[in-house]
Amino acid sequence: MDEFASRQYPVQEHMVFQRRTWIIQRAGWFVLAAVCLAALTGLLGGGILSNRALEGAAMTIEYERFERATRLAQFGFHFAPTDNTERRLHLSRSFQDKFEITSIQPPPLRSLATLGGLELIFAVAPSVKNQVTIWARPHGYGSVAIASHVDNNPPSNFRVFIYP
Amino acid sequence: MDSVIKACIVYFVLWAIIRISGRRTLGEMSAFDFILFLIIGGSTQRAITGEDYSLTNALILVSTFVVIEIVLSLLDLRSPVLRRVFEGTPTVLVENGHPMTHRLRWARVTEDNVLEAARRLHGLIRMEQIKFAILESTGKISIVPERADDKAEG
């Protein structure tokens, strides 16, 4: 008797259904493997394909394209050297809406809530490159368009996708 | 509302992953598999509860899981097709002492696994002593010994 024919004895088999199940199972293995591969490469956040550096004349922003809800995200702001001893970093309202800031290094001298979002004022050493790092916890899901600028320079725009 | 949606998603994603992993994984669980399942439970638990450790949230989650279970069991009763989808079907792996190699391969069960079940359940040591070996929908292997079956038929 054909191995894949359904038996009625000693149990009622449904071999057509069973074979479909086995095929779907194998397709599912590839899906699970794809999830692991996506995680390893950073497509689900925290990897090579996620890391981004947005370079501008006044500031370079290091961030991750893919973030996960409630996982701590890191944003690095590298200021080009100027003679100023204070730098004003502006973050758009979308950042405030989707990220809860947990830590800023170095701590800002003060922060202001402005019409367009959040402004952080830092004391910096003149004529050298300065770096500010913000750790923030994303909440909510989906794509977020963020704009940021330092002092009166033109804004840098970037997008972050937050996974649930 | 968030908790109910999260619980539903986690329930069906976990169900799909367990079904994808195959019945063997469930039925013939080793000590390591057991630890693995505990880790899976721990990983998903935090995703569902998030930062809400309130009694209300726990009540919502437990209620949601129980309601899903009840609804699925009612659907099971009404539809044999859904029952097959949710629970799977039994598959004969050994017939009259002959291992069905294609089925064994697809089900990821080795002849050694069948013989182990035969030894454990009936003290049988050879394949010829097995009338039927059946991979149940629960993932466990049932053995019908050659002699016992003959007696039953007689």
Give a brief outline of the structure:
The complex is a heterodimer of chains A (164) and B (154). By secondary structure, chain A is of the alpha+beta class.
How large is the count of helical segments of chain A?
2
What is the succession of H and E elements of chain A? Answer: HEEEEEHEEEEEE
Strand order within the widest beta sheet of chain A:
3-11-10-5-8-7
**How does the helix and strand content of chain A classify structurally?**
alpha+beta
Topology, pairings included?
The complex is a heterodimer of chains A (164) and B (154).
Chain A (H helix, E strand, L loop, with lengths): L14 H27 L9 E5 L3 E6 L1 E3 L4 E7 L6 E7 H6 E7 L4 E5 L2 E7 L6 E9 L3 E9 L5 E8 L1
Parallel strand pairs in A: 3-11
Antiparallel strand pairs in A: 1-2, 2-4, 4-9, 5-8, 5-10, 6-9, 7-8, 10-11
Chain B lengths: L1 H20 L1 H5 L3 H19 L5 H24 L1 H8 L3 E5 L2 E2 L1 H7 L3 H12 L7 E6 L5 E5 H8 L1
Antiparallel strand pairs in B: 1-2, 1-3, 3-4
General description of the model:
The complex is a heterodimer of chains A (164) and B (154). Chain A is 20% helix and 45% strand. Chain A has 164 residues and is α+β, with helices and mostly antiparallel strands. In chain A, the strands form two sheets. A six-stranded mixed beta sheet of chain A has the order 3-11-10-5-8-7. A five-stranded antiparallel beta sheet of chain A has the order 1-2-4-9-6. In chain A, a hairpin with a 3-residue loop joins β1 and β2 (59-64). The longest helix of chain A is centred in the first third of the chain and has 27 residues, at 15-41. The mean pLDDT of chain A is 94. In chain B, a hairpin with a 5-residue loop joins β3 and β4. In chain B, α1 (2-21) packs antiparallel against α3 and α1 packs across α4 (55-78). The termini of chain B are far apart. Chain B has a four-stranded antiparallel beta sheet. The model of chain B has no long low-confidence stretch (mean pLDDT 88). Chains A and B meet through α1 of A and α1, β1 and α6 of B.
